[in-house]
Amino acid sequence: MQHETPEFIAVLARLDKLERQNRRLKRAGAVALIAVAAIVLMGQAAPKSRIVEAEKFVLRDAKQRVRARLETDENSSPALHLYDKESNRRVSLYLTEDGEPVMSLRNARGKPQAELGLNADVARFSLRSPKVNGGVTVEVGTEGSGLLMYGPDGLRVGLTDGHVKPFELDFEPDGKPIAVRDWGLEGPALMLFDPQRYSTKIGVTSLLMPDSGETRTTSAASMIMFDKDNKLLWRAP
């Protein structure tokens, strides 16, 4: 067995030092790799918050047909419109200039046939005839509810269970709803109209007495008939 020389011992010491450095580098590299992987995974798991701003959004299908629009009108009120494959607007959800919500459903010819909305805390639901200017409107407010049935000549039936002021709806050519008749009821009452606008009212009403000029409120058991100019024809009791 050869004796170890000083040079041989020095070589062994350097080799041992290199091995220790190599082990430390491996451990440091493993730690660094784990840290990088953790950062990447955290970045993928964290929710991404993105804000997209625009004045109008247009959704198109695979054939480049417009199927939806999200925009504001001339009054800066937001509106969402949905279109069918023939580019007919079928659904509209919007806020009026006063901030009241409205949802309108249209047929393929563009005529509004159903509408749901709020007007001064009064919920309103309307169904329209697809051909004639007629339909049904139901209103529910804090002081009562009302049911309106009307035809091409106007209001036909009005029914209420309390002190309400419902109105008959009509639509402008562009489909915007407008009130064409406003009538108030003081209590439970039923009103009937014919095409000539003669009417009968059953129930509570405020009636102007022609002989004294006083306004009297009738009971729910009263019946009153009016001519086409809303003048009294007959009443009982």
Write the layout of secondary structure elements.
Elements: H1 6-45, E1 56-60, E2 66-72, E3 78-83, E4 89-95, E5 101-106, E6 112-119, E7 122-128, E8 135-140, E9 145-151, E10 154-160, E11 167-171, E12 177-182, E13 189-193, E14 199-203, E15 206-208, E16 215-217, E17 223-226, E18 232-236
Antiparallel strand pairs: 1-2, 2-3, 3-4, 4-5, 5-6, 6-7, 7-8, 8-9, 9-10, 10-13, 11-12, 13-14, 14-17, 15-16, 17-18
Structural notes for this entry:
This protein has 237 residues and is an alpha+beta fold. It has a domain of 129 residues. It is elongated, with a radius of gyration of 39 Å.
Sum up the overall morphology in one term. elongated
User: Mind summarizing the main beta sheet?
Assistant: 14 strands, antiparallel
Q: Please report the total strand number as a whole number.
A: 18
Radius of gyration: 39 Å
Terminal Cα span? 141 Å
Order of helices and strands: HEEEEEEEEEEEEEEEEEE
Q: What portion of the residues fall into strands of 2 or more residues?
A: 35-45%
Q: What structural keywords apply?
A:
237 residues; alpha+beta; two-stranded antiparallel sheet; 17% helix; elongated
Summarize this structure briefly:
This protein has 237 residues and is an alpha+beta fold. 17% of the residues lie in helices and 43% in strands.
